[in-house]
Amino acid sequence: MMRTAQNQRNSEQRSLQSIGQLIDELKSDDLRRRANSVKNLGAIAQALGPERTRSELVPFIMELIDDEDEVLTALADSLSNFIDYVGGPQYSTVLIQPLEQMCFLEESAIREKATNSLKNVINTINVAQNEEIVVGLVKRLSNCDYHSAKGAAASIIPFIYSKVSSAAQSEFLKIYISMIKSDIPTIRKNATIFLKDLVILIPKTPENDMISLIKLIIKDDQDYVRLYIMDSIVSLAKAIPPAKHASIVFPLLKVLAEDPSWRIRYVVCDKINDLAEIIGKEQTIKVLLPCLLYTSPSPRDS
């Protein structure tokens, strides 16, 4: 019995020593050691407990944001599962600041992981009670000079749009419209990629505004921006009544099918089955199949 208790104490002591070593390695000059320690942030947080994790570990994590990509990649992975370590959903907003800062980074893989982790955090909180925090996050991301952070805002807005007040929704729409109308093609492209997630929310999102944004992108002078708008047309077909397809969806589709860029016409062909499932056999034969004729290669493609 005494030996069992002694063995347990020895095991706990070794565990504490191991955690202490991990904490020390967070400050190591060796990149691999820092990355390994960040991968084990969960073990460190578990040893510290929720209160010390919030008050000590999270502020220290903020100091790691300027580290090398290898460390930041490990950090983005670790923070995606950190909600329980800070004390659960009621405290998860403390993770917003480090994740927000990671949305400003140049490496796209890190930004994407940070954005997805932000969505996980937002998904656990009561948005109605924390709307000021969420709206503030989106505004900071969209108002900064970093194109990458604006892309994170474009991804987050559709995710939380249905959960915020009508006043916040109006603000989000203004932000999104400004990104679609930006003079910078990269910003327009990122907004176009996630526009489909706003369009599918019709009628919560204004139908006329969504159609106007789609029409704007179809006229964009950069084909790598227009390349992503077909997904929004598919979402539009899902969101509006079938009676409106002929007057709204099909004219938009025809314009894309006749696009001078073969890349755009290729995307139309690639997504045609998705539309066919929505509009049914009769309209597929009557409308979609003729559109395929417009997507055929032309002399200008050679």
Mean pLDDT across the residues is 86
Poorly predicted regions? 5-17
Strand content: under 5%
- Shape label: elongated
Tell me about the biggest sheet? none
Radius of gyration: 24 Å
What's the helix count?
17
Task: Report how far the terminal alpha carbons are from each other.
Answer: 84 Å
Total E-strand runs: 0
Instruction: Name the helicity range.
Output: over 70%
Compressed to H and E, one letter per element, the order equals HHHHHHHHHHHHHHHHH
Structural class: mainly alpha
Q: What is this structure's SSE topology?
A:
Elements: H1 2-25, H2 31-39, H3 41-48, H4 50-63, H5 69-79, H6 96-102, H7 108-124, H8 131-143, H9 147-160, H10 166-180, H11 185-199, H12 207-218, H13 223-226, H14 230-239, H15 245-257, H16 262-279, H17 281-294
Helix pairs in contact: 1-3, 2-5, 3-4, 5-7, 6-7, 7-9, 8-9, 8-10, 9-11, 11-12, 11-14, 12-15, 14-15, 14-16, 15-16, 15-17, 16-17
Can you give a write-up of this model?
The longest helix is centred in the first third of the chain and has 24 residues, at 2-25. Helix 1 packs across helix 3 (41-48) and helix 16 (262-279) packs antiparallel against helix 17. The chain contains 17 helices and no strands. Helix content is 72%, strand content 0%. It is elongated and about 70 Å long. It has 302 residues and is mainly alpha-helical. The chain starts with a helix and ends in an 8-residue tail after the last helix.
